[in-house]
Specification:
The protein is about 10% helix and about 35% strand. By secondary structure, it is mainly beta. It has two domains: about 40 residues, N-terminal domain of TfIIb; about 55 residues, SH3 type barrels.
């Protein structure tokens, strides 16, 4: 038996591996191996820009100047966000930043402190 995961869109069992991705030949859906690992055990793994696993309560540092939508303010490189909370969605980190307030950040723009 093949130990390849079934396609998450069409449940086809004819998936194959292509580099760091899985591909479904029936519906042409592609997904990463990390995504397949997340769906296997039900827990979601969130990683920072350097590949470190993040968890609730961690402290992270911003690695890029981030413009705040709807404001002229900017979150500068090196700004720390303490006691983060992981949430579902595109912006997968909920945190409070001193001097700015509650924010949602993408994990690709932070590193674990």
């Amino acid at each position: 038996m093949s130990d390849m995961p079934k396609c998450p869109q069409c449940s086809s069992e004819y998936t194959y591996e292509d580099g760091t991705m899985y591909v479904c030949p029936e519906c042409a859906h592609e997904w990463g191996k990390e995504t397949a690992a997340e769906s296997g055990d039900g827990s979601r793994v969130v990683r920072d820009a350097h590949g470190n696993v993040l968890s609730d309560g961690d402290t992270v540092t911003v690695i890029k100047d981030l413009k705040i939508k709807g404001s002229s303010s900017v979150i500068k490189v090196g700004t720390k966000a303490r006691n983060i909370r992981l949430v579902e969605g595109d912006h997968d980190i909920d945190c409070k930043i001193d001097g700015i307030g509650a924010m949602q950040l993408k994990s690709e723009f932070v590193k674990k402190a």
